[in-house]
Amino acid sequence: MSISEAKITEDMKAAMKAKDKVALTTLRALKAAFKNAAIDKAGPDGVLDEGEMTAIIRKQIKQRLDSISQFEANDRPDLAETEKLELAVLEGYLPAALSAEEVEAIVTDAIAEVGATGKQDMGKVMKAAQEKSAGRADGKVLSQMVMQKLNQL
């Protein structure tokens, strides 16, 4: 699925009509995060590409996951439930995740591309692998695969 600010705006209108407060609040926060990142990138007329938008959505998801664990640790199931609902809304905007085989192929290509010879090349390989995955693979999964492959060299 392609991510765009227009799609987010359409979904906000639908959430307003459906009186879905959770979706509306989540989408407003997401749209604000997009706008702030665009301004940081190129001033008031800045525009984000799809990869940058995906990265922002992943960051928002990570924030929700952190909040859920904090709320559950502090015996606040009501707040944790709200975060879980927001998390579900955000996950709907992520592109389909890559399979383990696809991640492995990307990492193998990245290692060959940068000419990695060992663990010292982890940063170069990660950068190339992240560019190739275009936000469709979790950073943690990529990192583990890169480390595993580099250990085999």
From TrEMBL:
The lineage of its organism: Bacteria, Pseudomonadati, Verrucomicrobiota, Verrucomicrobiia, Verrucomicrobiales. InterPro entries: Asn/Gln_tRNA_amidoTrase-B-like (IPR003789), GatB_Yqey_C_2 (IPR023168), YqeY/Aim41 (IPR019004), YqeY/Aim41_N (IPR042184). Pfam families: YqeY. SUPFAM superfamilies: GatB/YqeY motif (SSF89095). Gene3D superfamilies: 1.10.10.410, Uncharacterised protein YqeY/AIM41 PF09424, N-terminal domain (1.10.1510.10). It comes from Persicirhabdus sediminis. This is GatB/YqeY domain-containing protein. One of its GO terms (molecular function) is carbon-nitrogen ligase activity, with glutamine as amido-N-donor.
